Amino acid sequence: MNFFKNILLLLISPVGGWKDIEKYTIPNNLLLGKLLYPCIGVLALSSFIPYLFGYVSISLQNVIIIAMIDFVKYFVSFYAISYLVIGFLPDLFKKKSDINKVNNFIVYNITILVIFNILRILMPGFPFFEIFQFYIIYVVYRGLNYLKIPSTREKSFVAIMSLLLLIVPNGIKLILDLLIPNL
Predict the structure, then answer these.
(1) Is a pLDDT exceeding 70 seen at residue 68?
(2) Could you report the per-residue pLDDT of 70-79, keeping only the tens digit for each?
């Protein structure tokens, strides 16, 4: 299974992407190690590009801090969102296979946000990448069939999951920005 093909499908056609993902049962640790962690690493490395090509005039020390913050905000976000979703919606995810599915769902969605962030760094003159992160709401909505969410809970699940995916990484970044001076 090609994980990056699935991400591309989710970006182009979320319905088709989730259908393709549903065909396979993937252990969450494998998905984390082959998809999310490498993408977060690429994001951290891409933080150096504006410094190397002179887009911004900041010190190398600050670039390293920015790279670390980018890495940590998505790394911790996966575990925080997983804990919150499974903890607050236990009636939806009772079986171990359901928990694996929701964790994979979170991994794919966070990876999409990471890719948007990489593109934002690589193309600093295109402000629509800041707005494009809201596309995740549509991807979450189209993933409801993948998770088999009951129709009575669809709206609340989309709202909760979308808010968590958008707020948790940015909240972690805000906290780290407050804790680390001189940025």
Answers:
(1) yes
(2) 999 999 999 9
SS3 per-residue string spanning the chain:
CCHHHHHHHHHHCHHHHHHHHHCCCCCHHHHHHHHHHHHHHHHHHHCCHHHHCCCCCCCHHHHHHHHHHHHHHHHHHHHHHHHHHHHHCCCCCCCHHHHHHHHHHHHHHHHHHHHHHHHHHHCCCCCHHHHHCCHHHHHHHHCHHHHCCCHHHHHHHHHHHHHHHHHHHHHHHHHHHHHCCCC
CA distance linking residue 9 with residue 20, whole number of Å? 9
Single-letter residue type at 60:
L
